[in-house]
Amino acid sequence: MNHYNFSKVLVVLLCASIFEASAQDFRFDTTISRQVLENYLDRSVSFTELLHDDLASAPSPGRADPQDNFRFIIDTKAKFVGRALMLWGHESNLPRFLKTAKRYAEALHKIDPEIILQAAAFEIVTRNVESIPIPERVFNEFGQAVANRNFNYDDMLYVSGRFVNHWGNDASVPDMSRLETRMWFYFLATSYIDVGIEAVHFGQVGLIDNNDPGHAGWRDMLGRVRAYAHQHARRHLLICDAHTPTGGYVEQGKLLFDFHSFPLRIMAITNEPYRGKLEVGYADSIFLRSKGGVTPSGWSCDHLPYLVEFDNFGSHNPGKLSASPFIWGWDEITWFALLPESDRNQWLRYAWNWVKTTDPNGHLEMPGSRILSPGRRDGPHWYWANTKSEACPNGFNTEATIKQIWADEMNSSDQSQARPVKRAVVL
Prior knowledge:
Layout: H1 3-19, H2 34-41, E1 44-47, H3 66-76, E2 80-87, H4 94-111, E3 116-121, E4 125-126, H5 136-141, E5 171-172, H6 179-194, E6 199-204, H7 205-208, H8 216-232, E7 239-243, E8 250-251, E9 254-255, E10 260-263, E11 267-268, E12 276-277, E13 293-294, E14 300-301, E15 306-309, H9 332-338, H10 341-358, E16 362-364, E17 366-371, E18 382-384, H11 399-415
Parallel strand pairs: 1-2, 1-17, 2-3, 3-6, 6-7, 10-15, 15-16
Antiparallel strand pairs: 4-5, 8-9, 11-12, 13-14, 17-18
Helix pairs in contact: 1-3, 6-8
């Protein structure tokens, strides 16, 4: 797709976004109401590394065309795009990713200014972080003397040696009780805000706070990041979440995060190879366990809204019965991607309805783009929900199903501001 054709696509999509208004409310500024937050979570899609691509460049071999990914986001009417900008180590890539992200985000927001783009700040730091200079503003924020230096990897680690090299040589879990770690997370989150990001997923808090009684380090870092967002974010708010295997993090009645998130935790149907289902109480699933309290936006709840996602974490004895978190030896997104197309689309409808029927606080995040671990060389190594085409030759044809599920939800919402009528679920 050349630039001329892409410009025409932008015009068509812009017209569509103007004339297809919905009764759903996506307005917020400085704080966000529960209803608006849930409207966003109901239109969420995980699209790993969306903003890493340059819209002006040709796609890399075997990958989707960045412009087709752009088309997917607008055409499906996604409103919350998860993990669109992220690092898993390789911190020296950050300046390049921020540059492409700013241009991509500006183009998306020109078509639909309501879209929330989410970045991620994960439970990993590598020696490569020492390639990143510390800006003067970060020293000033933490009351430190300004110095001409880069981030220090060793000063982010657990002094006890816990989780050092947890992810491989010179790739460790950072300790949030340490000042250097808080400075790094602050720098990362505020850099994201500066390119148009309005949400950050903070990964596995449970690993990073093993030396942080009362989550004091987390509360300090998040408070500073939120204060920066109030001044500099597009709508003066950064929406924060993290994986919460305990059901959430609450201190003195106050929730640390704006919403919770967790993997689906799909349970194998033992007498039906490769089939899976969702079940309350299976492993450490979050269903019916999301904790409540006072949110960062100031409203109270008994149970905080949450997202469940198709997680990626590798494979173990692929194709064999296995214990959680694996489903038939695969991670969740790989298991899903390897299903036959018709089964995959049917299971997505099942999961959407099951979550809504089972726990009104839960929301299914649609699978848009994610790395796969099939456990064999000839297997697919990336999942795209895009409709298969010349622009996305490795698309998995989930796009039409996602679009239809959301359209049905939107039509139901247009008829009533209440949540949709629950339907019986048959696997």
